[in-house]
Write a structure and sequence with these properties.
The protein is an alpha+beta fold. The protein contains eleven helices and 22 strands. About 30% of the residues lie in helices and about 30% in strands. A hairpin with a 2-residue loop joins strand 6 and strand 7 (about 90-95). The longest helix is centred in the middle third of the chain and has 17 residues, at about 160-175. It is globular and about 75 Å long.
Length: about 400
């Protein structure tokens, strides 16, 4: 086999090895991941459900309960006691367990769960375990249903099909690229922004449009020429210019390049303002640069006006990354100018978010103007391709010796 084909096979194998079968790909997502959950209420949809018990080694022990279609009492209460779970159905105590799994005979049926006074609904299975008096809740769900839930959670407020398609491709690509992110902890991804927001199945106003977008892009990933899935990062609004990856993080990524973005101008969260105490602002910048907090520095800051996005504030041969200022003062973006207003500074900014990759407001505007999801993705990411996960798996099988 030629060397370049061997490299291709090894690359594809490295991230497809985590996938048991793309024909029926389920992933495990931890719910309420950034919260301590001590109790949860589970309500089952109509139809046949099973409650399965497992031991500490995740071996099936027994079927705890069969919930038949005719059963009217379909609500269960779970709590954590040490490293064990206790389970109740109404006033009936069903026992103490190491691990529990709620599963339905019908894939279109849902689970409704309430924890910490927040109600959600999901497809797939719910898997419960406990550690130190806290519940760990995992949703085992079909990849495409997960993608629909992410699209709604991240950007379900509009009615733009092509935008939803672009978000679906990015959500799917992120999931595949990060399947191994939390394997050591017993699941693939979390439900918060450290992975992707996934606060429910898709079921609100634009559910049908989102489902259509997911189905239309089913199995599609955003990849490089070597078939490696990209890091499909996005933000709310670029302010008219996206930025290079290394201007925000440490690493230069070839397909995350700064560009003019007229589609994000005067739409959505394009502009913002924030007042900050002038003394605090001057002091922070001076300390971070290691210079004197004098009138010369203050004038330089008041003359700081970004015609285009910049990565640094430069002064006397020193430079301060604007991401540090954004983080310190809780700014919407690093794309701002400075004005004096009494004892305060008025920061006038553009954009919302880190500015790397796809601008959601810009992508929505492109969709409104008739651009396809493929055109949207090629606009915000450089030198990328759209490829089928199944086709990549087929190529892998064909190329193996």
């Amino acid at each position: 086999m030629p060397r370049f084909l061997q490299s291709f096979v090894l690359l594809v194998l490295s991230w497809l090895a985590l996938i048991p079968s793309a024909q029926a790909l389920d992933i495990d997502v931890r719910l309420y991941a950034n919260q301590k959950v001590e109790r949860a209420i589970i309500t089952l949809d109509t139809g046949l459900y099973f409650l399965l018990a497992y031991d500490q080694d995740r071996q099936l022990v027994d079927t705890v309960y069969d919930v038949f279609s005719a059963d009217e009492l379909r609500t269960f209460y779970l709590g954590a006691t040490g490293n064990n779970l206790y389970l109740k159905r109404g006033s009936e105590k069903l026992g103490v367990f190491s691990r529990l799994r709620f599963t339905s005979r019908h894939p279109e049926k849902e689970f409704r769960i309430e924890a910490n006074k927040k109600g959600r609904a999901y497809y797939g299975d719910l898997i419960f375990s406990a550690q130190s008096g806290s519940l760990q809740i995992v949703n085992r769900v079909d990849l495409e249903k997960y993608v629909a839930g992410v699209v709604e959670s991240e950007a379900g407020h509009v009615d733009q099909l092509e935008f939803f398609k672009a978000q679906a491709v990015l959500a799917r690509t992120f999931a595949i690229k990060n399947l191994g992110k939390h394997l050591a902890e017993g699941y693939n991804l979390k439900d918060d922004v450290s992975s992707q927001a996934y606060y429910s199945k898709a079921h609100y106003t634009h559910k049908e449009l989102i489902d259509s977008a997911v189905q239309a892009t089913r199995d599609t990933l955003l990849v490089l020429e070597n078939c490696q899935p990209v890091l499909g990062v996005f933000h709310a609004n670029s302010g008219g210019f996206t930025t290079n990856s290394e201007d925000v993080w440490q690493t230069e990524v070839s397909y995350l390049r700064a560009r003019r973005d007229s589609f994000s101008e005067n739409v959505g969260s394009y502009t913002w303002e924030k007042k900050v105490p002038a003394a605090s602002f001057y002091r922070f910048v001076a300390q971070r640069l290691g210079v004197k907090n004098n009138i010369r520095l203050q004038k330089a800051l008041l003359n700081f006006d970004q015609e285009q996005r910049q990565a640094y504030f430069r002064y006397d041969g020193q430079r301060l990354k604007l991401t540090e200022i954004r983080r310190q003062f809780g700014l919407r973006s690093t794309y701002f100018s400075v004005e004096k207003q009494g004892s305060d500074l008025l920061l006038k900014g553009r954009g919302f978010g880190h500015g790397v990759g796809l601008s959601q407001d810009g992508a929505i505007e492109m969709s409104r103007r008739g651009y396809s999801y493929r055109e949207i993705l090629h606009y915000y990411y450089s030198n990328i391709e759209l490829e089928s996960l199944h086709r990549l798996e087929s190529a892998e099988r064909t190329l193996l010796p």
